[in-house]
Task: inverse folding
């Protein structure tokens, strides 16, 4: 039977004070510096990967591009036509079956190539070799715009033989194996970079790309002199090299989802967070992400509900069969419960019936379920806000537009407002910001990065031709 404690008291563990959030800011700042340092990067949890994207679009980008988007729950192929600030987009979603997500790398890339061929056939572009941008939203160590080695899988993927390999190479090989299509991979990028680029296309002061979806991560524009791991890139030409005319900056993919993997966040983690991690396919990894993103938020709620029911605090102590199924309670249901406001109960009751088959609930049960969802999602919003504020303080720009995308941000009824309030509280008042919903960063952003790279490639070809002509004169 339940003791004298109640659900409100037991779940206070989920509350995080501003004092704790400020402590997290300091830790994050240290980890980011460590990630950027040559000597410290190896041990750092936040890897701060250079993306080799040095500038945002200038509005003159033109042409037809293909884009691939792998990294969320679905895989997409897109055909995008850019014309200055205008763009047209056509896309198709393909499922990635669970057995492919957990199969071999070759199976995964063959599947991707097959979807691409199917799409090109249907759009009647199979005979062209179009430039392509590949949004691959996992931690990658990049050595250039078209070379990205997967460091490790996150978010439910675990295909064998891909970690350590160059994903562009794997894609090219899979396409070669088919022999029916040809493509020109211009760039590989993270979804955060795509989001930043796609928002910057509209607002030039966009300097952060943020995802709160299946996973959570952010990228931002960093000055080159603070990126020790890129100290070989500078505007000053090195002997024997031609001048690098790109701006002295680069987008850094923070991969902040791994923050806390070394235990620094344990002071705010609850036993439910520990349990979730314990039973996940990537134990000990992505600790920050596991407290924030859509893949896990519903599962934290479910674990709390099961625990409190078993201890007699909810549903008369009876767990339904469906309640004990891991990942049964998707984060979309947290958003639905959160949309019951001011004492409303209709959504919560519907969700409990729909997901867990529980149709007899007391008013107190409903209030408690709502409280749990609210605490878990507010904590997530606070943590992500803390990280955004850390970036804003670090960049010291007068005003920054933050491009945001992801299912949690899009569908949770209060996430945006909670974030605006919390980021303001944690950011130096000298720096202002706006949160801007990105319009399909993973697709459009990929086309934009590919477009910039394509333009540069053509430019270089032209210059080479000109030099040849001059030499022949
Ligand atoms: C995970 C991935 C990261 C991605 C994020 C959002 O954290 O590791 O690369 O940006 O999810 O999709």
Result:
């Amino acid at each position: 039977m339940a003791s004298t404690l109640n659900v409100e008291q037991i779940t206070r563990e989920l509350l995080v004070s501003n004092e704790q959030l400020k402590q997290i800011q300091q830790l994050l700042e240290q980890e980011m510096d460590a990630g950027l340092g040559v000597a410290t990067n190896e041990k750092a949890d936040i890897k701060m990967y250079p993306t080799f994207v040095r500038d945002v679009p200038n509005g003159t980008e033109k042409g037809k591009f293909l884009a691939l988007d792998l990294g969320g729950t679905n895989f997409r192929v897109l055909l995008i036509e850019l014309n200055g600030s205008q763009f047209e987009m056509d896309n198709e979603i393909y499922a990635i079956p669970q057995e492919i997500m957990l199969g071999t790398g070759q199976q995964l890339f063959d599947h991707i190539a097959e979807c691409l061929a199917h799409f090109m056939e249907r759009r009647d572009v199979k005979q062209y070799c179009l430039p392509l941008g590949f949004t691959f939203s996992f931690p990658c160590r990049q050595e250039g715009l078209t070379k990205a080695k997967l460091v490790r899988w996150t978010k439910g993927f675990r295909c064998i033989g891909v970690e350590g390999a160059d994903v562009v190479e794997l894609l090219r090989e899979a396409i070669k194996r088919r022999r029916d299509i040809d493509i020109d991979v211009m760039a590989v990028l993270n979804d955060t970079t795509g989001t930043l680029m796609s928002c910057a296309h509209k607002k030039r002061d966009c300097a952060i790309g943020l995802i709160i979806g299946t996973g959570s991560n952010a990228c931002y524009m960093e000055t080159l002199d603070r990126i020790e791991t890129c100290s070989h890139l500078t505007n000053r030409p090195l002997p024997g090299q031609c001048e690098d005319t790109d701006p002295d900056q680069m987008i850094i993919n923070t991969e902040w989802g791994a923050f806390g993997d070394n235990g620094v966040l344990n002071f705010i983690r609850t036993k439910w967070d520990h349990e979730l991690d314990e039973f996940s396919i990537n134990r000990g990894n992505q600790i920050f992400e596991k407290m924030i993103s859509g893949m896990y938020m519903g599962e934290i709620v479910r674990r709390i509900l099961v625990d409190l029911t078993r201890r007699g605090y909810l549903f008369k102590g009876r767990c339904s069969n469906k309640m004990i199924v891991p990942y049964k309670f998707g984060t979309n249901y947290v958003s639905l419960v959160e949309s019951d406001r001011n004492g409303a109960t209709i959504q919560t009751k519907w969700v409990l019936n729909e997901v867990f088959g529980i149709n007899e609930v007391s008013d107190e049960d409903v209030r408690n379920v709502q409280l749990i969802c609210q605490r878990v999602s507010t904590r997530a919003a606070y943590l992500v806000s803390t990280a955004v504020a850390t970036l804003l303080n670090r960049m010291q720009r007068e005003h920054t537009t933050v491009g945001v995308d992801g299912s949690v941000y899009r569908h949770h009824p209060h996430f945006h407002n909670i974030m605006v309030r919390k980021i303001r509280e944690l950011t130096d008042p000298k720096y202002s910001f706006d949160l801007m919903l990105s319009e399909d960063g993973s697709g459009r952003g990929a086309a934009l990065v590919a477009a910039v790279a394509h333009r540069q490639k053509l430019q270089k070809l032209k210059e080479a031709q000109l030099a040849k002509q001059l030499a022949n004169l």
